[in-house]
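Raw record, unedited: ABC transporter ATP-binding protein
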Amino acid sequence: MKNFKRFLKYLIPYKKHQILSIIFNILYALFSSISMLSLLPMMKVLFEEREKIRVKPTFIGIQDFDIHYIENYLNYYITHLNETQGPLITLITIVSFVLSTFLLKNLFSYLSIVYMTYLNNGILKDLRQDVYRKVISLNVGFFSNERKGDLIARMTSDINTIKVSFMNVLMMIREPLTILFTLAGMIAISWKLTIFVFFFIPISGFLISKLGKGIKSQSGNIFELEGHLISNIEETLGGIKIIKNFTSEQFFTKKFNAFTNDINALNNSVGKIMSLSSPMSEFLGILVISILLVYGGSLVLIDKSLSGGAFLAYMGLAYQILTPAKAITRAVHDFQGGSAAYERVAFILDAVNPLQDKPDAKLITEFKHEIKFDNVSFKYKDDYVLKNFTLTIPKGKIVALVGQSGSGKSTIANLITRFYDVTEGSITFDGVDIRDVATKSLREQMGIVAQDSILFNDTIANNISLGIENSSEDKIIEAAKIANAHGFISDFPNQYQNNVGDGGSLLSGGQRQRIAIGRAVMKNPPIMILDEATSALDTESEKLVQNALENMMENRTSIVIAHRLSTIQNADLIVVMHNGMIVEQGNHEELLKMNGTYKNLVSLQSLEIN
């Protein structure tokens, strides 16, 4: 119930639709009862059971408006109509009235569903947007600990489950009202018979609650397994070449089958419970109706205290209770599943971003002097990957970071862009601690070109102008020329409107990297961060990309994380790292003269020293 209350906040923007739906549901419930009660005068005409009243009943006050007054007035109307128009016209008139009540009942049902559909779809839209907005705002570290496929499942199928189950609960307002109005009509006809119905409802409710007890926990397990299943599919599609190359199809098939078998077993378990609920509620209803037939029949045939027409109308009302009772049963079970799904979605909505901007965070509009790492230590989990790291990066200089894999080079890029916060020490931007700076304004000063050039399934132009609204074609072309990409882009049939495919799959590695460089150039930041931007390229592509990088770095502050040392010989400062610490620093010539770690790295790469 706690989850349901929290979900109610999404109703607020759609109060109008909700109110209209409630009004039409009330009218639907009312006319559901009236439609069955309207059969009573028709029965009286058909079976000639009515008391012939030729004097119109007098209405004195509201205290006289009861079932006897209504019955006397109906008898007077039917008697008058029958004697003046004949029995056929009387029957046609009453049938028309019955038809009208059923028409209104279904009209109000349609209108209530239409407005609830608007409400339903609007809430689904808002919930999806909230979850996506939260996901996009979370820090990078959050995604390192979560399965991508499980997050996708929470954002898609789990939200759909919430929509269906919680909306069924909201729609359930009509069912208790239908039962209430129906019971009122049944009491008006015979309070004795209605006692059996009152006896049936609590028993039915108790049995239904017993059935639904285990649905929530099992539904939660199903949602979790489906998240793992989507992760498995995502990994399979992403690594299909590796799977085939290592002939691992059977291994992955077994893994996938294990997931589907577990989901199948849980679905069958939940399905057995849910499948039992509807037949059970219907059987209990028929059982009570059977008892009513015996007892009610005795009132008609033996006791003579109830007319046949009234008894048939009463039985119609009693049977009408079965439909809303079954709907309530389904809604209870759906609620259990929806509650489990909401707990999984709430995991995202409640996730805390430890890198939130401070209320008084400062805005950076330009880069003036320097970036300084002051005795910085950092660890992702338990072990430190940076230890007592101190470095100053002056404006306009090219600073290169080199070292073996795992020495902490890429961590520097993660910290300077504030994807993570330092564990100890500080990083200052023009003398201001970046933890005191608005993150968006900090990142606007930086452009990143990484080893894995991530492109989106969109046009080349949109990938280059990523994040820039209403960008001109001339500026896109200019950025592409600086990135040494204009030539190959012009060879495509649609040129800049050509689609790059999923992840840039329609382009070569060098082409993807140059478009990524063009994207960084288009942003036009004062600081460029190059994280092993050429390490995954062949020699020819590397040369083209390196030329593009040199064009891009002109008149900018650049932080170059390099694996291939040939790309950083002209850097103003080369910082050599080992096990998260600086072991050497200087320019290319100075480091060679030290005969230390840097020279050893150069030798290992068989670099020709001029």
